[in-house]
Amino acid sequence: MIRSVVRGTGAALPRRIMKNADFEGMVETSDEWIAQRTGIRQRHIAADDETTASLGEAAARAALDNAGLTPDDIDLIVLATSTPNNTFPATAVDIQNRLGMHHGFAFDLQAVCSGFVYAVTTADLYIRGGLAKRVLVIGSETFSRILDWSDRSTCVLFGDGAGAMVLEAGEGTGSIADRGVLAGSLRSDGTHKDKLFVDGGPSTTGTVGYLRMEGREVFKHAVGMITDVIEATFSAAGITAEDLDWFVPHQANKRIIDASAKKLGIAEQKVVVTVDLHGNTSAASVPLALSVAVADGRIKKGDLVLLEAMGGGFTWGAVLVRW
């Protein structure tokens, strides 16, 4: 059978680093308060010349270099983002052009923080369906553009960045020992829309709007929803938490990460955490964390890696990959 095998990963971050202490003159908060409640210590903030497209392009080039491939080798680009450069066309098409890629096809996928997990499963379907041999999957965000910098409950949480992965068709036997995407589970529930959303849009206000969040409500639902899709993924693959080598969760809040891992019985030393360095970068958070763990040698060929995310909507999902 066909499997979608990871060939390479890459990342890109804006030049500017914003520390927790930098917020102390802007809103009523402190480094200690932010770090204690979220685990975040810094985040990267995009300059005027850094956009979702430019960061996505840089991450894509890094992933291609890591894979030993060029844009000519790619058939499809799937970009997960909630902060596109334009209402249309898709920012994926912009990245395609920036890469000098004039064949194949490209599109954006919008599932907020779950976007990259949704994008990986989407790319896997295109590969297994024979419509693409190699897919560039990107998560790129500039959430700083949609933050209300006077709202201390949200502005301290988010950052900008991009991460990318190259998936390639490979042969598998259909067993858990195969390399590539092995199983996944995706969910959404629109009844929670008002708990995490942006209060603007072309069809409603005609404005970009700002991010609004009911933090306690999101936290209340997060652990249960995350556990739900992970257990479904474990069941589909016929494994348990003990079989995992690495757990790469959405980097939103250290407390949610810790509580989810504990509930699932995933050992602390198997959890990849970068929320302290990047903050919540929405669809970019999982590929950024992956890139860090691959670059420092933690994630190696043959490792069993679980990706997970939850975002506005609510959307949530998990995908299991043999590296």
Automatic annotation (TrEMBL):
Q: In which pathway does it act?
A: Lipid metabolism; fatty acid biosynthesis
Domain named Beta-ketoacyl-[acyl-carrier-protein] synthase III N-terminal: residues: 107-174
Provide the alphabetized UniProt keywords. Acyltransferase, Cytoplasm, Fatty acid biosynthesis, Fatty acid metabolism, Lipid biosynthesis, Lipid metabolism, Multifunctional enzyme, Transferase
Q: Which stretches are annotated as coiled coil?
A: none
Its function, per the record, reads: Catalyzes the condensation reaction of fatty acid synthesis by the addition to an acyl acceptor of two carbons from malonyl-ACP. Catalyzes the first condensation reaction which initiates fatty acid synthesis and may therefore play a role in governing the total rate of fatty acid production. Possesses both acetoacetyl-ACP synthase and acetyl transacylase activities. Its substrate specificity determines the biosynthesis of branched-chain and/or straight-chain of fatty acids.
Record-linked NCBIfam families: fabH (TIGR00747), PRK09352.1 (NF006829)
Please give the HAMAP family that the UniProt record associates with this protein. Answer: FabH
**What's the protein here called?**
Beta-ketoacyl-[acyl-carrier-protein] synthase III
